[in-house]
Amino acid sequence: MKLVKTLNFSTIGDNRGSLIALETLIDIPFNIRRVYYIFDTLSGVSRGFHAHRDLKQVLICVKGSCRILLDDGKHKKNIILNNPQTGLLIEDLVWREMHDFSEDCVLLVLASEYYDETDYIRDYDNFLRYL
Ligand code: TYD
After folding, report:
1. Residue 78 and which of 22, 67, 69, 72 are 20 to 30 A apart at CA?
2. Full-model pTM
3. Residues whose CB is less than 8 angstroms from the CB of residue 31 and which lie 6 or more positions away in sequence, other chains included
4. What is the dihedral of CA 33, 37, 38, 39, to 10 degrees?
5. Per-residue buried b or exposed e for 88-103, using 16+ beta carbons within 10 Å of the residue's own CB
6. Residue 75 annotated to the active site
């Protein structure tokens, strides 16, 4: 799936533990306008089920694990995020779902735009038509 890329972040570790720093246009290939995080997800709950027209995002599971299902209308791909060193870059029009959140999962999302409900495509058939 060409619209999705994995980013590997370097950890600055020392005898106290680990730290990762992410800088706009250096580690993240867009201007970060918004940050949000999903946590305390109840057991068995899935989220997402939408695509974005213009938004770019990087998803980082900073704690625990979850499964991201991506669908470009032709192919589906499952990606397990379970590592704070890995970012999942999603650009362009991709249907995304989030599943299998571990109890301790904290999913950090860096986004290129402010929240805008009109950028969402929340109906799968509309997504396929829009493609
Ligand atoms: P929703 O889009 O359902 O989350 P997800 O796609 O992760 O399942 O968002 C849940 C609610 O939070 C919805 O009322 C919109 C609001 N929201 C914001 O106000 N700002 C944001 O940046 C996001 C992502 C959601």
Report:
1. 22
2. 0.95
3. 24, 25, 112
4. -170
5. bbbbebbbbbbebbee
6. no
